[in-house]
Amino acid sequence: VGVDPKSYEERLKESWIWSDLKKVRNVRPSFHNPLGLYGGVAYSGFTLLLGGKEPWTFSHGGNKPHKLIEYPKPDGEISFDLLTSVGLTGTNHEGDQPPHLTLLDDTVPVKRNLTVFDGPEQRFCPAGVYEYVPLEEGPGLRLQINAQNCIHCKTCDIKDPSQNINWVVPEGGGGPAYNGM
């Protein structure tokens, strides 16, 4: 009949696992303090003495800034540009076939994915099918789907954080033709 997550959480809280986790809830976050390793070790010992009965719970801290990865440009021998790689797949789509990539809600990519996650569609697709382009009129961006580049890996259907992209099997005979494999 299905799984009820609410009953799972209640059962977890009633189990011995919950009491064990509560005892050590502050150990890992205690290392994120000005005293570093020594402060964390001292607090961990203190926690063992109290048995986890302290009335507070530490935070694990916020997100830390990260450095963007700078990838080298394709050299044409070992690494290739996106369009060359898509061309090597031999992907073929008939021009009059119905779209096999659709959005459940056209507003989600800009309102949620671009705003909250910085538009992951433009990065997780290995064939560059999704890109944010400027609106024809006025400021802002819109999601453009270049379905002719799709290599049918189904990554978009799996990795879209909003589960808004619907990938369906294209008409027969279309898609990649990896010759020589």
Automatic annotation (TrEMBL):
Catalysed transformations (reactions): a ubiquinone + reduced [electron-transfer flavoprotein] = a ubiquinol + oxidized [electron-transfer flavoprotein] + H(+)
Enzyme Commission numbers on file: 1.5.5.1
Keyword list, A-Z: Electron transport, FAD, Flavoprotein, Iron, Iron-sulfur, Metal-binding, Oxidoreductase, Transport, Ubiquinone
EC top class named in words: oxidoreductase
Cofactor note: Binds 1 [4Fe-4S] cluster.
Top-level taxon of origin: Eukaryota
Repeat is among the record's keywords: no
Domain ETF-QO/FixX C-terminal: 76-179
UniProt keyword Cytoplasm, yes or no: no
Obligatory cofactor(s): FAD; [4Fe-4S] cluster
Pfam family, one: Fer4_ETF_QO
Function of the molecule: Accepts electrons from ETF and reduces ubiquinone.
The protein's name in its UniProt record: Electron transfer flavoprotein-ubiquinone oxidoreductase
Source organism of this protein record: Timema podura (Walking stick)
